[in-house]
Design goal:
The complex is a heterodimer of chains A (226) and B (247). Chain A is α/β, with parallel strands linked by helices and 226 residues long. Chain A has a single domain, classed as Glutaconate Coenzyme A-transferase, CATH 3.40.1080.10. Chain A is 15% helix and 23% strand. In chain A, the strands form two sheets. In chain A, strands 4-3-2-1-5-8-10-11-12-13 form a ten-stranded mixed sheet. Chain A has a three-stranded mixed sheet with strand order 7-6-9, with no helix packed on it. In chain A, strand 11 (181-185) and strand 12 (192-197) form a beta hairpin. In chain A, helix 3 (90-98) runs parallel beside helix 4 (134-140). Chain A is globular and about 50 Å long. Chain A starts with 9 loop residues before the first helix and ends with a strand. Chain B is an alpha/beta fold and 247 residues long. Chain B is 20% helix and 26% strand. In chain B, the strands form two sheets. In chain B, strands 1, 2, 3, 4, 8, 9, 10 and 11 form an eight-stranded mixed sheet that branches. In chain B, helix 6 crosses helix 7. Chain B is globular and about 55 Å long. Classes of the chains: A alpha/beta (226), B alpha/beta (247). At the A-B interface, helix 3 and helix 4 of A face helix 5, helix 6 and helix 7 of B.
C-alpha cells in the first residue's frame, strides 16, 4: 500500500520525543534519533542529561576540533562543559540507571511488541552484537520511549505482535514515536493504543503499515510539536 | 623504607603477566581513560592465551570513537592482531559500524576468539562485587533475554531478577590522570568509567598515569581510587622528552 502522505523526518521524530521531557527530569538519550532530541527541548524545560560514560549534566556537543578526550558521551562524541556537572565511575553510572534514578530514556529500536517488549541490540544477520547499556536502561529507567522509523528499509513493520529479534527487555516500553504515529503501550497487558498520527495519515493507513493490532484513542489527534 | 609503587618502565610494569592470565583493560572505548602504553608493553611482552575484560574489545581503531582528529587510535586491536587473545568479556565488543569490523570481530568470526557478552552495568557491578567480597548479586537487567539464558533467576516483589557472579582478574591495567607515589589515583572527567571497579577487582592493578606526585600532592578528598587497590604505577613520558604524543 502506498503512503497517503510523506513520512516525518528524523528531526521531527526527535522533536516530538523532546515534548515528553518534563522540567527537572533526568534524561538518558540513546544513539541514533534519540541523540537529536537535545536540539529540541523546549526553552522553558530544564532537564539534566545522564550518560553511561559517567556524567550527569553537560553542555551541547563540542565545536569541531574543540574536543576533550576526558569529556565524551556514550556515543564517543565530545561534549562541552557547563557549570554543575558531576563525574562518576561505571558502577555508579549504572547504579543510577538500575536504581530508578533516571526519569526518561529515549532509545532506538529494531522491533517493539504489542506488550511493550523491546528488541534493539542484536541483528541476527551479523551474528555478534553490542549490548552496551541498553538492557540496563530498559530494566531501570522509569520511562522508556522508543524513537524509530515505523517500518524497516524492506517495508516490514517494526511494531509486531511478538519480537522475532532477541529482546533487550520485556514489557519495558511505554511510548513509541515513529515517522507516522505516536503509539502508547497501555499498562497491564492491554496492548497498544494510537494517540497521534502524522499529517495526512489516519488510523486505517497506519494500521496497514503495522503488524501488531492497536486500539485508537478517542482523543486521536495529529502529531503536535509545540 | 618509604612506600613507593613507581616502576621505571611500562615493560617492567607488565613483565609478570603470564600466558593464560585474565587481564582487565580500563576505559570506556575512546582515548580517555585507556592505558595505551601498558597495552603496547603487553603486546611487546608477548603473553598469549589471555582473557581480556573491558567495556569494548577495541572500537576506536575502525571508527575513531572518542579520539581526536589526526591521531591514529590505539586500542585492544594491538593485542588481538598479535594473536595474544583467546577470550573477550565485554559489553560493546564490536565496531558500531557493520561495514568497518574491528580486529576482534574478525577473530571471533574465524573461531579464534571466544566471547562472553555482558550488559554494561552488570559488567561494572560484577567487578565492584569482586572487589568488595560479594560472591554474586541479583539484577533486573537482562531478565527475560538471551543474556540470562542458563542463569539462576528469582522473583522479588513480583519482579524477575538474574543472578550474576563476581568477576575477578589476575591483572587490571588502568589509566588515571594523577597518582601519588603510594598509589592513590585521581581521574579526569569521563575517563573514570571502568577504571575504579577494575582496580578493585584484580589481584594486581597497574596504573598508567600522566603524572606522579609526592604524597599530599592529591587532596585526600579528591582521591578516586585509594592506594589499597593499586600495586604499581608508571608515568607517561612527556611528548617533549621523547614520549608518544597520545591523548
Amino acid at each position: 500500500m502506498t503512503d497517503p502522505a510523506p513520512r516525518l523526518d528524523r528531526e521531527v521524530i526527535a522533536m516530538r520525543v523532546a515534548r515528553e521531557f518534563r522540567d527537572g527530569e533526568v534524561v538518558n538519550l540513546g544513539i541514533g534519533i534519540p541523540t537529536l532530541c537535545s536540539d529540541f527541548v523546549p526553552p522553558d524545560v530544564e532537564i539534566m542529561y545522564h550518560s553511561e560514560s559517567g556524567l550527569l549534566n553537560c553542555g551541547p556537543l563540542a565545536d569541531e576540533g574543540e574536543g576533550d578526550v576526558d569529556l565524551i558521551n556514550a556515543g564517543g562524541q565530545f561534549l562541552s562543559p557547563i557549570p554543575g556537572m558531576a563525574y562518576f565511575d561505571s558502577a555508579e553510572a549504572f547504579a543510577m540507571i538500575r536504581g530508578g534514578h533516571i526519569d526518561v530514556t529515549a532509545l532506538g529500536a529494531l522491533q517493539v511488541s504489542a506488550m511493550g517488549d523491546l528488541a534493539n541490540w542484536f541483528l541476527p544477520a551479523r551474528g555478534v552484537g553490542n549490548v552496551g547499556g541498553a538492557m540496563d536502561l530498559a530494566a531501570g529507567a522509569k520511562r522508556v520511549i522508543v524513537a524509530m522509523e515505523h517500518n524497516g528499509r524492506d517495508g516490514s513493520s517494526k511494531i509486531v505482535p511478538e519480537c522475532s529479534y532477541p529482546l533487550t527487555g520485556k514489557g519495558c516500553v511505554s511510548l513509541v514515536v515513529t515517522d507516522i504515529a505516536v503509539i502508547e503501550v497501555l499498562p497491564a497487558g492491554q496492548g497498544l493504543q494510537l494517540i497521534e498520527h502524522a499529517p495526512g495519515w489516519d488510523a486505517a493507513s497506519i494500521q496497514s503499515q503495522t503488524d501488531a493490532e492497536f486500539s485508537v484513542s478517542t482523543d486521536l489527534t495529529e502529531i503536535t510539536l509545540v | 623504607m618509604p612506600i613507593n609503587k613507581t616502576v621505571n618502565s611500562f615493560a617492567e610494569a607488565v613483565s609478570d603477566i603470564s600466558d593464560g592470565s585474565v587481564v582487565m583493560i580500563g576505559g570506556f572505548g575512546g582515548a580517555g581513560g585507556m592505558p595505551h602504553l601498558l597495552m603496547l608493553a603487553l603486546r611487546d611482552q608477548g603473553a598469549r592465551n589471555l582473557t581480556i575484560i573491558g567495556n569494548t574489545a577495541g572500537i576506536a581503531a575502525p571508527t575513531g570513537f572518542g579520539w581526536p582528529e589526526g591521531i591514529e587510535p590505539i586500542d585492544h586491536a594491538v593485542l588481538i592482531e598479535n594473536g595474544q587473545i583467546a577470550k573477550v568479556i565485554a559489553s560493546f565488543p564490536v565496531s558500531g559500524s557493520v561495514s568497518r569490523p574491528n580486529a576482534f570481530e574478525k577473530g571471533f568470526r574465524a573461531g579464534e576468539i571466544e566471547l562472553e557478552l555482558v550488559p554494561q552495568g552488570t559488567l561494572a557491578e560484577r567487578m565492584r562485587a569482586a572487589g568488595a567480597g560479594i560472591a554474586a548479586f541479583y539484577t533486573p537487567t537482562a531478565a527475560g533475554t538471551m543474556l540470562a539464558d542458563g542463569k539462576e533467576t528469582r522473583v522479588f516483589d513480583g519482579r524477575e531478577y538474574v543472578l550474576e557472579e563476581a568477576l575477578h582478574a589476575d591483572f587490571a591495567l588502568v589509566r588515571a590522570k594523577t597518582a601519588d607515589t603510594l598509589g592513590n589515583l585521581a581521574y579526569a572527567g569521563t575517563s573514570r568509567t571502568f577504571n575504579p571497579p577494575m582496580a578493585m577487582a584484580a589481584k594486581v592493578t597497574i596504573a598508567e598515569v600522566d603524572e606522579i606526585v609526592e604524597p599530599g600532592g592529591i587532596d585526600p578528598d579528591r582521591v578516586d581510587t585509594p592506594s589499597i587497590y593499586v600495586k604499581r604505577i608508571a608515568a607517561r613520558p612527556p611528548a617533549s622528552e621523547g614520549g608518544v604524543a597520545l591523548p
